[in-house]
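Many introductory courses stop at the sequence. We go one step further.
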Amino acid sequence: MKFTDGYWMMREGVQASYAAEVADVRVDEDRFTLHAPVRHVTRRGHTLNSPLLTVECWSPAEGVIGIRSTHHAGAAERGPEFALHTEPGYAARVTREGSLLELRAGKLSLRVDTAAPWRLDFTENGRVLTSAKARGTGFAVTDGGRHYSLAQLALDVGELVYGLGERFTPFVKNGQSVDIWQADGGTASEQAYKNVPFHLTNRGYGVFVNHPGKVSYEVDSEAVGQVQFSVEDQSLEYFVVYGPTPKDVLDRYTALTGRPALPPAWSFGLWLSTSFTTSYDEETVNRFVRGMADRDIPLGVFHFDCFWMREYQWCDFTWDPEVFPDPEGMLRRLKEEHDLRVSVWINPYIAQKSALFAEAKRHGYLVRKANGDVWQWDLWQAGMALVDFTDPDARRWYASKLRALTAQGVDCFKTDFGERIPTDVVWHDGSDPERMHNYYTQLYNETVFEVLSEARGAGEAVLFARSATAGGQRFPVHWGGDCESHFGAMAESLRGGLSLGLSGFGFWSHDIGGFEGTPTPEVFKRWVQFGLLSSHSRLHGSKSYRVPWDYDEEAVEVSRDFTRLKHRLMPYLFRAAQQAAERGTPMMRAMVLEFPDDPACHTLDRQYMLGDDLLVAPVFSADGVVDYYVPDGIWTHLLSGEQIHGPGWRRERYGYDSLPLLARPGSVIPYGASDDAAEYDWAHGVTLRVHAPVDGATVVTRIPAPGARGGSSAVFRTTRDGDTVTVEAEGAPGPWQVLLVGALAEPGGMGSSASASAERTALGTLLAVSAGTARLTALLTGS
């Protein structure tokens, strides 16, 4: 929200007051509180008829400093509140030397000169990261009586801002006005399904505004060189989160707001949907599933979209008996005959025609208006109402309906909607409607995730969710919402996913082929490549099916080849998923996250890193031409073995069988032995693909166990010493192989009980070793 009229004046009807100096300070051992008048006080009379801001400063964890600025403190405290996790046993340090006050939280400090004009400096070992200056802390009131608390933090020359949730506007947020306010606006507008009041910059820090309601940002816009954020409230609380790297910022931020849960291994396979308003029944489902099997395209999950239920009755959680007369039998057959998991669509609305409406109304489980009436409208479903998840009994009631479905054989839920939440209502727990508008999705997704965790066991729960706010990363997976079916929409979807990844979300997907409309074969095939090189992969549309043979035979080949490629990459991908759960590092990473010291990477939004070591540049053109940037070093094309020297830009043309997919210099990419499914024993028979190994370096490759279906884990250490490459195995359950990409090699000294065979392939030299081998040494003889 903008308050000023240019640099000198305020907008008509707005009066603003800013902290001018420190009147006094209260110091505790690990925090301090500043009292700041909004004018320079030189005599006692200046203390009359003038506001005094209370500014509390503390640290919940190392590298994180919190600021809470309050005008009037007498307001009743009404939820909801974000659940924040503090570091157990941690305490910051406060020091005072003369007028200089400092709060130290590891390498991050807050410095205040209490004898100088108002200024909060956030520093890293003495270097100023950002500051709240003359207009950095304050409030504004309007002639209509509305009160806003606001803050400004300075941007340095060349400093770029990212994040603020899944936003489809330009990737770099400088120059944008952004409202953190849930909306169902598709992917081609400034509105967003997933609004997160957190941003990070390329200077080694991020900022989280701890307010679940509407937060208005002016990013280098109203005040050039400042990020301004404001809330309609008497107080404003925010945390400055130190890095120094972007990965470190996300690590600290997700430690504060919650780590992403680790999705089950099977969820990384290909999902196929009925699509939305298409005509389908059990025979359609069987035809789709058989069609995928007949064409040798492995399928992991089948999804039933809205019309698995009867029209006008969403959500009554009951299969349409005319279309699916035997749901239990159908689900059992899908599992037994095709080894599929099953997903079904739900939302948090109860249509009036559903018998559950009367039941929920009778028990008081629906959100009400101030006069006691149930809140209803006809948008989406006729006469629909909204489940009040602030009522524990309503949550248990809703969960019971889902448990009936898991008992039938449903494995996961697509939790659609959760954005269009009214503010003219009364919540069971007395929550502030404005604050609940954004936060509702948290209660909704949490309720569903808990059901799946209980029904399927630890590590087996996964959603396909559209809406989210801060902390929503704890309930993956999220998908990008309603996009069109053209190359531009494909690119805007990627921008949204990269922004969400820089907002603490580890896993993200999108509708392969686009949702609205029908993609051309060219768009479909390129989107398939992109989708199967994403965290999670789903074929889904609105009015048209997304089975590959509806486009052309080449689409079938592309779908088959890239699905099987993803399955071979599962030992690599699942380790990247573990990193997301452990540190909050997303699987799909904006280039700035992986290469913060390369300025050329700071604005890139048409390519990304998939895990630590794979660069992906989707093709967004019908002619197959793609421009992409390669950072420093010798990169290797994963599919062709071609070596590419960076840094620099490249323009290339690709057929539908390939795209820029490059392995990082010195990387070791584990390939699983099977391509039939996402979940198998990844360590058994694994191939380690070694790319341009760096002399003197050791690369540790961890192969995780796949989870519920058992399997082994293993660790490999690959070292190059001159012309010798040595691989040491720990815990390998069977035979394994090493592919020296682009290099000629012959086996050298190996484990005494082992033997190896060498084979020259199109990509390089393949060295196969027997079970139980703990060490392989190869001599490079050329390249």
